[in-house]
Amino acid sequence: MKSIRIKVYGRVQNVGFRYFAIKEAEKHGMNGFVKNESDGSVLIEAEGEEINLDKFILEIKQGPNWARVEQAIVNPVPSGNYNSFSVKY
Fold first, then answer.
1. Judging by DSSP bridges, how do beta strands 2-11 and 42-48 pair with one another?
2. Which distant-in-sequence residues (6+ apart) come within 8 Å of 84 by Cβ?
3. Mean pLDDT of 48-71
4. Among the options 5, 11, 36, 52, which is catalytic?
5. How do residues 3-57 score in pLDDT, each as one tens digit?
6. What is the C-alpha radius of gyration for the chain, rounded to an integer number of angstroms?
7. Between β-strands 85-88 and 31-36, what pairing exists: parallel, antiparallel or unpaired?
8. Other beta carbons within 10 Å of 21
9. In what order do the strands lie in the sheet with 85-88?
10. What confidence category does residue 64 fall into, taking pLDDT thresholds of 50, 70 and 90?
11. What is the pLDDT of residue 19?
């Protein structure tokens, strides 16, 4: 298992990005959370098998059709021991 934090910048709020992230997390077997930040970015913490995590990161960097990802910064983090993937408010 590997754990990461992704900070996503661009047009990523009010475009369904969090629900896109949930769909992709479920598809790739990720646990963690997604959250809108006050600076207009989206924060994601995800953990899972490295090969699936790499696929998840590629999808997040692409984003849904109606979003525009300008930058996605990925950093390793300690495990959050998540049991599911959810939206944090």
1. antiparallel
2. 31
3. 97
4. 36
5. 999 999 999 999 999 999 999 999 999 999 999 999 999 999 999 999 999 999 9
6. 12
7. parallel
8. 28
9. 68-76, 2-11, 42-48, 31-36, 85-88
10. very high
11. 96
Average pLDDT over residues 74-88: 97
**All domains in the chain, ordered by first residue:** 2-82 (3.30.70.100)
Cα gap 88→43, rounded to integer Å: 10
CB-based contact 2:82 (threshold 8 Å): no
Among 18, 52, 81, 83, the active-site one is 18
At residue 61, φ and ψ (nearest 5 deg) are: -65, -30
Tell me the one-letter amino acid at 59: E
pLDDT of residue 35: 98
18 catalytic? Reply is yes
Q: What is the pLDDT of residue 36?
A: 98
Residues 61 and 9: their CA atoms lie apart, in Å, by 10
Cα–Cα distance measured from residue 85 to residue 50, given in angstroms and rounded to the nearest whole number: 16
